[in-house]
Each structure stands twice: as structure tokens, then as C-alpha cells.
Amino acid sequence: MHIILFGPPGVGKGTQAKLLEEKYNIPHVSTGDILRGEIKEQTELGLKAKAIMDSGNLVPDDIMVQMIRNILTSAKCKTGILLDGFPRTVAQAEALQKMLTELKITLDRVINIEVTEEHITERLLKRAAETHRTDDTPEVIKNRLQVYKQNTAPVKNFYEKFGILHTVSGEGTIDEVFNRMTSEFK
Ligand code: AMP
To answer: 35 C-alpha to center of ligand 1: Å?
Structure first.
């Protein structure tokens, strides 16, 4: 199964993805986690991405598309993927579509998680206190939400046209959201 988990930063995609990975045995791939790993390892990509991520902006499309190509053709993702954090622009979505056609992969669905903006800010500030992520400061959070609205939210229309966009409320407890998510897997 090939699934995209979509939604603004702080909506709970990562938490839900980990639970879904466990239940359905589909590998969870988070582009944000991969980039943070590259920063930690101080690779060329990590060094390039750090300042961009710390400001809450997006890493260039060509870099991200190449990263996804490598992942989709890896042994780990032979039978499926739970993609979290990609695509984040319409250009990335178009490139992904082209790639999937080439690789003869069908995207099963895009699950869009939505919560109110106040809840997102609240959750991101709480996560900042817990994880010390350098892009969870109030200033950067504001920019990330702006970038989401401007560049990422339009991706929803892209998938709506394909008829594979399913929207789920991210309000409530982790279990409540998880139950809503699993009903989208039936
Ligand atoms: P995340 O952990 O998904 O919130 O991602 C953290 C940061 O990584 C984002 O704010 C971006 O700077 C960068 N990033 C992750 N995925 C992408 C993507 N698909 N396109 C561009 N930048 C990305």
C-alpha cells in the first residue's frame, strides 16, 4: 500500500505514522527525519539543509524529489510506503506522480489530517519544550505555518482532482485520531 500522510506541521502526522507502521507493517518515511539525520551526520546535504530548516523554509524541490526517488526504488519500500512530509509543493506532487507512473506504482490514498490553527501552534510549542527542535521556536513556527498555507496547502487540490484525498480530523486524543485513521485503511 502506498499512502501519503498530509497536513500542516504539528498536526500529529509523525505520531500517527509510527502507530500505522506498527499496525500495518508499512515503512514510515519522514523526509523531515531524513533531513535531520543528514544534519546530524554533517553530510553535504545536511549542511545545505540546516539553515533552510532552521528558518522554517523549504528545501529545494530538486533535492527532495531525488531523495524520494532513491527511497521509492529502495528494497525497504518494495511493497509500500507511508510517506510523511512529502510532497510539500505542487511541483513535488507532479514530480512524484510522474515517478510513480514510471515505476508502475499506484498511490492508494492521501490522508489529510486537519486541526485548528490554535491547536497547531499549541502542539508545536509543546513539542519544542520536549524535543528542543531548532525549528519549533515561536518565530519559526509562524513562518512554517505561512509556508504551509502558501506552498503546501495547494497540494490538497492536486489530489482532490485524482479523487484520492481523504480528510480526517486530528482533534482529540492520539487513540481517537488513530481510530479515524484506521477506518481510512479499510
Ligand atoms: P518536518 O519534520 O516534516 O516538519 O520537516 C522539517 C523541515 O524539513 C521542513 O520545515 C522543511 O524545511 C524540511 N522538509 C521536510 N520535507 C520537505 C519537503 N518535502 N520539501 C521541502 N522541505 C522539506
So the answer is: 8
Q: What is the mean pLDDT of residues 15-39?
A: 96
DSSP 59: P
Alpha-carbon span 20 to 12, nearest angstrom? 12
Note the pLDDT of residue 128. Answer: 85
Is 69 a catalytic site residue? no
How far is residue 133's CA from residue 159's CA, in Å, rounded to a whole number? Answer: 30
Residue ranges and CATH numbers for the domains of the chain are 2-183 (3.40.50.300)
Respond yes or no: is residue 186 known to be catalytic: no
Q: State the closest ligand 1 atom to the C-alpha of 60, by its place in the atom list counted from 1.
A: 21
Q: What is the DSSP string of 66-95?
A: HHHHHHHTSGGGSS-EEEES---SHHHHHH
- Single pTM value for the model: 0.95
Q: Is the pLDDT score of 127 beyond 90? A: no
Q: Tell me the β-bridge partners of 6.
A: 112
Which amino acid is residue 100, in one-letter code? L
Q: What is the mean pLDDT of residues 127-134?
A: 85
